[in-house]
Amino acid sequence: MDFKNVGIVDVGMAVVQQLWNEVTQQAMELGSETSDVVLNKGSFQEFSKTIFELKMLLASLNAQKIVDATHSESTTAALETLSFQLKKACKIIKDYKSGSRIRLLFKSHSILLQMQDVAKDIAKAISSFQLINLDIALNLKNMTNQIIDNLSTMEFQSALATDKIASEIEDSISQNSKDQENAVKLLGKIAEAVGASMNASMVQNELELLKQEKEEMEDQKKQAEALQLSQLIQFLYSTEIVMRPQDEIIAAYHQQYPIDSFICPLCNNMMADPVAILCGHSFERKAIQEHFKSGERKCPTCKQELLSMDLTPNLSLRNSIEEWKQRDMDLKFQAAVPGITSNDLSRQKKALENLQVLLEVPSYAAKFAEEGLIRKLVEILKDKELDSAAALKCLYCLAKCCDNQKETIIKAGAVRCIVKQIYKDGTEPDAIAILLELSERETHAEKIGSTKDCIPLLVSLLANNNPDISQKAHKVLQNLSSNTHFVVKMAEVGHFQPFVARFNQGPQETRTLMAAALIEMQLKESSIKDLKNKQFIHNLVQMLSSSAPACKVACLRSIKKLVEYPKMVKRLLKDPVTIPHLLGLISFVRSDPHEKQEAAEILALLIGASQQFELQKYRGLQELQSNHNVNLLLQVVASSDPKTKVKFLHLLVELSQKSETAQNLIRSDEDAVGQLFSLLHSDQPVVKRWTMRLIYCISEGHPAGVPLPPSPAKETAITTLAGILISSPDTEERSIAAGIISQLPNDDVDIDEILRKSDTLKAIHEVICSADEETDGNMAPAGHGPSLLENALAALLRYTEPTKPELQRQVGKLELYPSLVRVLSRGSSLAKQRAAIALAKLSQYSTSQLVYDATIVANQAKHSMPLMNVMKLLTNMSRCCSTSSENVSICSVHGAACSSRDTFCLVKADAVKPLVRTLSETESGVAEAALMALETLLTEHSTLSRATAAIVDSQGVVAILQVLEKGSLSAKTIALDLFQKILRNTQIADTLFQRSEGILIQLLHDAELKKKAALVLKQMKVLPDQSSYF
Q1: Strand, coil or helix: what is 283?
Q2: C-alpha to C-alpha distance for 872 and 699, rounded to whole angstroms
């Protein structure tokens, strides 16, 4: 055996095996690299799948067996070819993934073609192994055939969306478009296509990659590639997501005197995108493209026939043009500097026109500022012949670009000029933009805020229709808000948000100053919306606990101002410390009397602005009604000076009006009641008046009436009240005194005796008679509550009680009835109600007496004198409601029985018609009182027919039916009873009968009234006796 040959064979086989393993590894790497390609994902995933199958095939085959069948040299050659193609494909994929994604998207079509060619080459390399002819497993042969077939026929097709985006990129850079909006939209499509987020980081990364690739292309002298990369860089900058560095900015404005070589022969304009054609002449890209599109194939300049329409960007010419433009801008600036100070108006205008553009460049702005020309621009703002808008634009550029020149702009008086100009000519966006730039620094903001009328102007601009202006004004105000004086100014003109924020952040001294300023401000509903801030209210109330008197006084007065607004009342009550802090001021012995007065006034306002149910809703109001706190308030009344007394009496009145608990606590305190009645002798009218109000308030509507001190103070109290009603010159005092008298305990004969012996009834009579002479009939006092007439009528009701005949006789002697009847026509609703009740009580008592007297007279006549003599006697006696006995007619209801001077009759008093008219009153209780008065006519069977006739003749049925239609439930109930009695005792017209039938049928649907209504309908024979309504 030749061992030498054996060794050579083993080494060769080892080389093949190593190469085989490397190729297998390369296939695996290529498959992995290809699997996560984002663009044209479908084609690459199919390729990746096939390469992984190739890797599996190579791993499954036995290299030794293939070498034995094909010889090692051919196997090695095939493996090396396959390795080369796999490496080539892997490089294409890595470049595809690692370079600029925008550029690769732009070049995706050519890369896909490269991949398609490589796939075919890999298929050929696999075929060269001739695996089909080898003795291998059938499934491996089938796999080999499938792999070769897939790679040979594989087509790398670009997605339609990708092609479209690439086309849009090409259009954008070829047209040198500077449309920022379209550029951003296109970048969004690109980001979506490559699976990236469109943000500044993505754009910055792409720019770095493109710039790096551009440098590589320039180093390799690949100018076309470098140009394309420059265009892509320009496209990214056109989105303005990332700003081009200063050293890359190239100005491109039209020049006044262009060089011929920079002018396009076709369009006669300065070239912006010069391209060279085959003959070497250059044109503006768009112009030469249109030339070629028209069918021309000759150069417009030399007329040479062109074999190709290819366009080559002329970068050198473009750079020359741009450099020339920069020099042109320098020349314009050099001309503008002296021009702006020239006495020649046309030169000034031209300089101003150029400076608007030039000063947008920071270098020019800095140079301009160095020339000391800022003051000149401010002067131009005042010049009507020059363009102030252009001057504002220049000042804005200077403020924006030259931070160190902002102080100069302010010192030159720009802020005051801007404010005046806006007030006079309206708002220029650049004007407010200047203020915003200047206000960024706190020291500058101080000077802006101190400028006369500046803050009111800025606040007015918040409502400007231009959102940009209103937003900038808001930002300027924010920049000024670190100064307490400025936020107070803002609040004074209605902008409270900074005020509230500053108050919440500030120390106690700042809050004291701001609270004091708030007192003087005019507040609107929009202001209240901001001041309703929960933290603001809490911080304000907490100032009450301060040891500094100035702080507490400012807090009290500002709270008192805020309480005028209902929304603020609720916010103050919701804060758990509001009422405890106010009570703390009151209870603290060493508190200043003025502070106590303010606290009491605030509490009174809070209670007065609250609904009755809210006294149990808020914890503070619940505490205020406690026995301890009510006693505290009463003690202050007892021990304080007159002015403080008034404030606390007012507070107790407000509390008693809303709280039954507080009423009962005051009533149950005998010492407090005695103290209150002793204050009726005060030499301070206002103290006496508020005391009377409190007594009336704790008495009104209470079952026990007025809480009186024990005798002999009780008698003194009654006498004092009577004296006030009789002789006080103050209408309100008399009114309240009458109201209190009306609430005196009803079953106390001592009180009745005191009143009977006094001139109280005469005073009441005087009030009622005086009401006849008043145009409104009310005699209303200054302030709220019942009028003097209304309270006098309430007091009169004590004299009309049927159980008090002595008092009723006093009423009869004073001939009060005609005045009462007139009140029914001329008084307020409450006056009418009370007058009707008085008439009802008088009639109730007199009717029973009239019947009784008539019976006695008739019996006497029957036994002792002829009928004619009886009638003559009765005629001589008839003096119903009159002082004269002459021309007196017989009463149509009671006859001569009501002729006595001391008796009262509704018919003789002509009260029936006024009472009927009163039934139309809609105020609660009025119609009920009038119905009750009319019903007193129908109490005696002997006079029923005549009494009902009197009511019917006065149009009473129509009025009663109106009550049944529209009245309250209680009024309808009384009206039904009255109507039923009328139907029993008299006939009514058919039309009224039919109308009443319809109304009563409607009442059958009312659960409360249906039974009564059914009974009346039964009486009318509308319902049968066995109706289900009974």
Answers
A1: strand
A2: 52
